[in-house]
Structure formats: structure tokens, C-alpha cells
Amino acid sequence: MIPKLVRLSRSAPKDRNTAWDSYWARITATGPGGEVLWDSGNDHEFLGYKDSLLRHLDPGLPVVDTGCGHGSFTRALAGIFPRVVGVDVSPHAVAKARAGSAGTANMTFEARDMTAEGAGAALAQSIGAEDAGANVFIRGVLHVLDPAHQAALVENLRALAGRRGTVFMAETNFQGNAVEYVSHLGATTKAIPAPLELAIRGLPMPGHFGPLERDRAFPASSWELLEDGHVTIETNPATGVPGQDQVPGYFAVVRPRR
After folding, report:
1. How far apart are CA 162 and CA 255, in angstroms?
2. Which regions span the lipid bilayer (predicted)?
């Protein structure tokens, strides 16, 4: 299995931003039966977050879906909050999100690298949130970033959250190695599910993000932890085998100390 994974992953672009935009440029189908590995095609996972989101996020502020991809969670957020902004590093992802959200008045999208210096303050100004701030929703972004890019993202989230904003995160927290992870998702020595192979071929190798990683990235000296716990991250049910589309995950709600 390891030689096959190494061979497939060699084709991934070395530049992270290029890799993500190239990946989304190749995607032709999302939702049930689609090509996106982390798209379950239903709202079951999101409904598990709903109570926490409504409990902690100020509805008077916009919600920024950071790393929105094709916008499935952005659309779910727009169903419970008055204003939602989807942001992704990939212009092709943003184009797909806009196409899938046409006619929804309380939702907009921007292509922006949220690990770039000053991106949080610039986005806050762009959406009129430079005073009170904005809420942030992140699902499945931090675990694919190295520590340096995590730190850069968190710095921008602090600027974006401003005086009143809160950050909700949900991340993959699978503790095994790369072979155990892809095996959990249905890969065998004979075959790899198509959505998984597409991700291996085109994207950086993911890690995991749990309480220890959150404590490092969002230190208690700068961030107040409001709530956290275990969740299940739901992926594309490509194999049809029960359980292979569910990955152990972690969620947390944090707020900058003012």
C-alpha cells in the first residue's frame, strides 16, 4: 500500500494554493455520488453542530465560512444566520460555490488566502466587519495545514473576530498513520475509491487536529475555550460499506480574549 500511496501523491503540486485550485478545477460533480472526498451529500453532520453554533455565535454578526470549498456548509449556515460569507483560497472552488448558491440573497463568496499576512483585517473591511468583527466557521481546514500556516490562519481569525466574534471549528482527528487512514476510508491493495484517489493525487497529505493541536494553535493566553468535544466527520460514502464514510473528529468553540 505504501509504494502505491507514494506514487500517487507525487503528482500533487508542491505549492499548496496551486494544489487546491487545480483540484477544484478538476471537480465536475459534488453532492451524493460526487467526486469530493469530504462531501457526504447530506446535512446530518451540520445538524450536529447547529445547537453549538446558535448557542455561541452572535447572530448580529456575519458568519465567515473559512475554506468553504463548493459551499455546502456555507449554504447550511445561511439557513440559520442572517448573513454568511464563504471564503476559499481556490477561485475554482468559489466559482462552484457561487453557481450552486445562485439566488440566495444572504450569502456571498470571496477567493482569498486566509493564511496571507493581513488577510483577516482585509476581509473584515471588505464585509463591513472591521468594528464589531465577524463569527468564523471552519470545517476541515486546520488539519491540512502545517503549524506555520495554522499560526498564520489563527492570527487572521483573531483580526477577523474583532470585538464580538467567535470561532467554531470541526476537524478530522484520526490518530492512525497514512496507511491506516486511507484504509479506514476504503482503500485496499487492489483498489482505492475514486474520490479518495483524486484527493491523494492532487492535495497535500492531511494530518489530524484535536485538543493538543487546538491548545497549541489557540493558546489559552489569547483565546477563551467555550466548548469542545468529539464529533464524527462525515465523508463521501463512496464504498457503501457502513462506517467507512465516518472519521473521528474534534470540535471546539473559541473566542479571542479582549
Report:
1. 10
2. none
